[in-house]
Amino acid sequence: MNTGSDEPHEVAVADKAKANRREVEQEAERGAGQEAGQVTGPEDSAGLGSRAPAFIKARRLLHLSWQVGVFVVGLAVVVAGIIMLPLPGPGWVVIFGGMAIWATEFVWAQLVLRWTKRKVTEAAQRALDPRVRRRNITLTVVGLVIMGALAGIYLWKFGLVMPWKIKNQ
């Protein structure tokens, strides 16, 4: 069936006005992405770029205010995560949640999240490697033996007395 377009997944449109309107909307989407400094082309299919709705991307001022709002919300979440690092709470999880919010709109945040996911996956694969697991278990056992020996020496020399109550050293 001839749709009158070389674009994949196009359907036949009976009304010329509908076809023209669709072409204008597609041009607006492409133009909004280029105006915002986003990469279009093969990278777009890889998931980079703004995920704002098309009607927002079609209007420059609306898209800019959308980006500012996403940045402010992401910044608030990241700051909350940084505050949670020394305090009780899932600090790193919240920080990466803020990065995910930023990644809905900004390519740099998408690239940071991809890099982070790749590094976490590599670390998980290394941790599951039998040689690395054997080494980690060996180091843990050696550390526990050393700590037990030190505790035994302390108990043999001082008994069950706390260090701040020892009078004869």
* Integer average pLDDT: 76
Instruction: Report the radius of gyration as a whole number of Å.
Output: 29 Å
* Number of DSSP E strands: 0
Q: Give the overall shape.
A: elongated
Describe the model.
This protein is mainly alpha-helical and 169 residues long. Helices cover 69% and strands 0% of the residues. It has seven helices and no strands. The protein has helices at residues 16-35, 42-45, 54-57, 60-84, 91-103, 107-128, 130-158. α4 (60-84) packs antiparallel against α5 (91-103) and α5 packs across α6. The radius of gyration is 29 Å and the shape is elongated.
Short description:
The chain is mainly alpha-helical. 69% of the residues lie in helices and 0% in strands.
Outline the secondary-structure elements.
Elements (H helix, E strand, L loop, with lengths): L15 H20 L6 H4 L8 H4 L2 H25 L6 H13 L3 H22 L1 H29 L11
Helix pairs in contact: 4-5, 5-6
What are the salient characteristics of this protein?
0% strand; single chain; mainly alpha
